């Protein structure tokens, strides 16, 4: 997967790109992250990248010239890449978007534009293909958002994680939250591991996990169930459970 990150703070990515699974994927070239220093495209002797907003108001705004020049330099080197503007005004990042962007990064390449200050001159938007927000909150800059996207997409790249089953079975990969997990010891301060997990019957364990995933999702994130295909028995289970909860 190829990702270019346009940022005023390339040093922000130093440690994450050298650490753990992402560090290994980066050094092996499975996830090639190119850091594009926006300052290089700044204007004048002082390499200015921001200016006061027309009309007044707090803070500074990223100038169109430097950001568009940085985007054009990435496009020149990677003509098929998708340029994604990171902004709290974008479409929400979620697991399905991580899957989509991993595919984009593997095909033509992905470019992530990190804003700072009060954001972008509006005319920059015309030079981007997509806008993504990592959640309904406001960060100080796009670097955290870029890192979250790179991490989430990188672990979907074949070969990055040792056991690919783990990305198939985890939370949100099938639209549901993951079932509860346990490891040793079998008993911790009086809390026992559910008996079903100790029996070695894989079909029974799989059925228990599916039920736990459904119940956990219904309880914590009921809106996610709308996108999930359920059997008649599963629909009945959820109806009975919610009727039980309503009666409590
Ligand atoms: C302080 S924010 C600017 C917010 C801007 N004034 C607005 O209301 O849209 C500075 C930069 O942080 C990044 N950022 C902040 N929150 C974000 C989010 N939820 N998702 C993605 N990027 C975000 C964007 O790149 C943004 O340009």
What is CATH's topology name of the largest domain?
Answer: Alpha/beta knot
Query: What's the name of the CATH homologous superfamily of the largest domain?
Result: SPOUT methyltransferase, trefoil knot domain
Oligomer: single chain
- In whole angstroms, the N-to-C terminal distance is 50 Å
String of helices and strands: EHEEEHEHEEHHEEHH
Q: What ligand molecules are bound, each kind once?
A: S-adenosylmethionine
Q: What does the overall shape look like? A: elongated
**Mean pLDDT score, rounded?**
95
What count of domains describes the coordinates?
2
Walkthrough of the structure:
Helix 3 crosses helix 4 and helix 6 crosses helix 7. Strands 2-1-6-5-7 form a five-stranded parallel sheet, sandwiched between helices. The chain has two domains: 2-154, Alpha/beta knot (3-Layer(aba) Sandwich); 187-247, Trp Operon Repressor, Chain A, CATH 1.10.1270.20. The chain has helices spanning 20-28, 64-77, 95-107, 143-154, 165-169, 202-220, 232-247, and strands at residues 2-7, 32-37, 50-51, 61-62, 82-92, 110-113, 130-133, 187-188, 191-192. With 248 residues, the chain is of the alpha/beta class. S-adenosylmethionine binds next to strand 5.
Would you spell out the secondary-structure blueprint of this structure?
Blueprint: E1 2-7, H1 20-28, E2 32-37, E3 50-51, E4 61-62, H2 64-77, E5 82-92, H3 95-107, E6 110-113, E7 130-133, H4 143-154, H5 165-169, E8 187-188, E9 191-192, H6 202-220, H7 232-247
Parallel strand pairs: 1-2, 1-6, 5-6, 5-7
Antiparallel strand pairs: 3-4, 8-9
């Amino acid at each position: 997967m190829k990702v270019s990150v346009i940022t005023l703070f390339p040093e922000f990515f130093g440690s994450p790109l050298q650490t753990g699974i992402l560090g290994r994927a980066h050094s092996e070239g499975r996830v090639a992250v190119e850091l594009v220093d926006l300052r290089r495209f700044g204007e004048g002797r002082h390499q200015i990248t921001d200016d006061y907003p027309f009309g007044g108001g707090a803070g500074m705004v990223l100038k169109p010239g430097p950001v568009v020049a940085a985007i054009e330099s990435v496009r020149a080197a990677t003509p098929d890449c998708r340029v994604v503007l990171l902004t709290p005004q974008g479409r929400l990042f979620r697991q399905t978007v991580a899957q989509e962007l991993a595919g984009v990064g593997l095909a033509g390449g992905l470019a992530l534009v990190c804003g700072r200050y009060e954001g972008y001159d509006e005319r920059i938007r015309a030079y981007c293909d997509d806008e993504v927000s990592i959640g309904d909150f406001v960060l100080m800059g796009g670097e955290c958002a870029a890192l979250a996207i790179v991490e989430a997409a990188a672990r979907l790249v074949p070969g990055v994680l040792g056991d690919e089953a783990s990305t198939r079975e985890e939370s949100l990969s099938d639209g549901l939250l993951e079932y509860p997990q346990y490891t040793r010891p079998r008993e911790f301060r009086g809390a026992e591991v559910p008996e079903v997990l100790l029996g070695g019957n894989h079909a029974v364990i799989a059925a228990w996990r599916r039920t736990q995933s459904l119940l956990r999702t219904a309880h914590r994130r009921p809106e996610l169930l709308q996108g999930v295909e359920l059997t008649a028995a599963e629909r009945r289970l959820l109806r009975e459970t919610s009727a039980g909860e309503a009666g409590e």
